[in-house]
Amino acid sequence: MHRVLQIPLPSFFVSCLSSVRFEGHQPNHQFYQNKKDYFWRMSSSPSYKQDLPPPGGYSSIPFKRVPAKTFFSGWALIGGYLGMTAGAAYLYFLNCKSVKATELEMKCASFALYPMLLAERDRAYLKQLRKNRDEETELMKNVEGWKTGTWYGEPIFYTKDPDSLTDPMYAEFYVHCSYKDFMTRGGMMLMS
Amino acid sequence: MVLTESVNLPTEEELTVQEVNLSGPALKAGAFHLGKACEFENNEFVLCRDELKDPRKCLAEGKAITNCALNFFRQIKKTCADEFMQYVHCLDKSSPDQKFEPCRKTQTVFDKCVKDNLGIERPPYDYYARVHVHQTARPRPPVEGPTVYEDATPGLPPDAPKPEAKYGSRYLFLW
């Protein structure tokens, strides 16, 4: 058990070190094979309990596949899908038909009113054209060489019949109106 | 403006007639019966506008339409005023764009009244979208032929010889 220190040291130092080392339980590597053995040797009441399977043995490991419950087969699913789609398509067709009929009815009401409204519009339009032409004549009466509807006698169209009615441009039609009316009409054109 | 003094425009007096002074819902409520009552005038006017493409030449037809529509609405006012106004209110208040669906009940009442008093049956919903044959005494406007230019290059005489191409023609799969 005694271990002699081979290092030459002063005598007081040797005694001190020796006492410390011998008081503690330093493992002797030649006797104790590992640290555990050393521990149990030192305990006062060593009791062992071997870890063993439960009585009757372990239960088997559940490694088998557990598939989900199937309510429909693949063919049934495809058939169901086709059936549902067919039913929905029929309902869609019915709805579409009714919507189209509604739109057509609205359109037909407009068609029935169209000639009357067009006749009214034509009269108002021709009235306004005459007003515009008179206004231009009145406005340019002091300008020498000015002829209404032309640029100092130079017409816009040469080969057209002089009596043919050419629709003026939008800005020309509103040229004598206020700017607000002009823009309002433009906005209405966009809205309608 | 583009209009010169040589363009004949009708005067204010020629263009001033009594217009149909009704609002949109009222016109819409009477639209189907109006179209049936004034069918001939409507077709005549639209045919005129389509053939001549000039609003100045169809003023008489337009006035006839307005007169017919006025007479129709006067008759409605005389006989079915209550039913008509009920229908108009329904159209006006039920939807933003005067749909016919919400007003089938009032429409039925109005239709019955018009049929009993004026003898006009409401045409089917797609009547005015169908093709109709219109019998008219209006002369057909002359068809304008192709423009003939005096200085155009004279073409080959009709009996000019047409020999085969001397060197054939190229042929690349299709042409």
Keywords:
heterodimer; A: 192 residues; mainly alpha; 2 domains; 5 helices; 54% helix; 0% strand; B: 175 residues; 7 helices; 46% helix; elongated
Structural write-up:
The complex is a heterodimer of chains A (192) and B (175). Chain A has 192 residues and is mostly helical. In chain A, 54% of the residues lie in helices and 0% in strands. Chain A has 5 helices and no strands. Chain A is elongated and about 135 Å long. The termini of chain A are far apart. Chain B has 175 residues and is mostly helical. Chain B has a domain at 23-129. Chain B contains 7 helices and no strands. Chain B has helices at 12-15, 24-29, 31-37, 39-52, 59-79, 81-94, 104-117. Chains A and B meet through helix 3 of A and helix 3, helix 4 and helix 5 of B.
Task: Give a brief rundown of this model.
With about 190 residues, chain A is mostly helical.
Classify the helix fraction of chain A into a percent range: 40-55%
Q: Alpha-carbon distance between the termini of chain B?
A: 52 Å
With helices defined by DSSP (H or I, 4 residues minimum), what is the helix count of chain B? 7
Name the beta content range of chain B.
Answer: under 5%
Major beta-sheet overview of chain A: none
What class would the helix/strand composition of chain B place it in?
Answer: mainly alpha
Q: What's the domain count of chain A?
A: 2
Q: Count helical runs of chain A.
A: 5
Name the overall outline of chain A: elongated
| Chain-averaged pLDDT of chain A | 83
Uncertain residue segments of chain A: 12-24
- Which chains share the greatest interface? A-B, 45 and 49 residues
